[in-house]
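Project outcomes to date are best conveyed with an example. Our students and postdoctoral researchers have been running inverse folding experiments weekly, and each run begins with a structure described purely in tokens. The record below, which covers 206 residues, was selected by the lab manager from last quarter's runs and is presented without edits.
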């Protein structure tokens, strides 16, 4: 694992509960709400919720660094920014397990090596399928690409709306949170950072 700052993988936790225990926890929540978990309409709900959590949070069982294991050096002298824009993002905040959705823009300036574009989207997706806050998600994506690909710089910018902003008393459903993480030339040189920011534009997520 390269993401020392990232969330702990379950393998670091020797007492991972069983699937049955997870389903039982859902039954407990339903009863705590005041409902009857044994009524027919809810009979299969714990099973479905556990399966749904397994899918939404499968990033705990995937290794984002492994996506960068295969790189290409034959790029015919290409030496400009590589940008993947508008990567659809759906994640869950660690404070409320409430969804936040939006887009991620990821760019890097290659240092000879490049990587398949789908890999950048995969890295975003793997981290998104873990609980965290948007700030750490942004940094984890950037640092994983920086350490795995060793480019001259990485730029990551995420714009997302958070459901917990609707649920809580602040009630600001349209508010967009923007976070960015820059390394190398994107951090140190205005012209590269400007280039990235101009390329992605200021459109907010749909
Ligand atoms: Zn939240």
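After processing, the design step wrote out the following sequence:
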């Amino acid at each position: 694992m390269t993401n020392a700052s990232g969330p702990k993988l379950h393998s670091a936790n020797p007492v991972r509960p069983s699937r049955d225990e997870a389903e039982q926890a859902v039954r407990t929540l339903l009863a705590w709400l005041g409902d009857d978990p044994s009524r027919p309409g809810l009979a299969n709900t714990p099973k479905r919720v556990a399966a749904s959590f397994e899918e939404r949070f499968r990033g705990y069982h995937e290794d984002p660094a492994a996506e960068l294991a295969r790189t290409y050096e034959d790029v015919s002298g290409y030496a400009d920014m590589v940008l993947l824009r508008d990567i659809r993002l759906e994640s869950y905040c660690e404070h409320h397990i409430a969804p936040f959705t939006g887009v991620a823009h990821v760019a890097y300036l290659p240092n000879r090596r490049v990587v398949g574009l789908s890999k950048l989207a995969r890295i975003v997706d793997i981290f998104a399928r873990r609980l965290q806050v948007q700030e750490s998600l942004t940094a984890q994506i950037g640092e994983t690409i920086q350490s795995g690909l060793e480019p001259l710089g990485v730029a990551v910018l995420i714009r997302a709306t958070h459901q917990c902003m609707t649920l809580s008393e602040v009630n600001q459903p349209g508010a967009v949170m923007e976070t960015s993480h820059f390394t190398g030339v994107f951090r140190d040189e205005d012209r590269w950072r400007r280039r990235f920011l101009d390329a992605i534009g200021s459109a907010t997520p749909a």
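Residues 93, 95-96, 98, 162, 164 surround zinc ion (CB under 6 Å). DSSP finds seven helices and five strands in the chain. The training component of this project remains on track.
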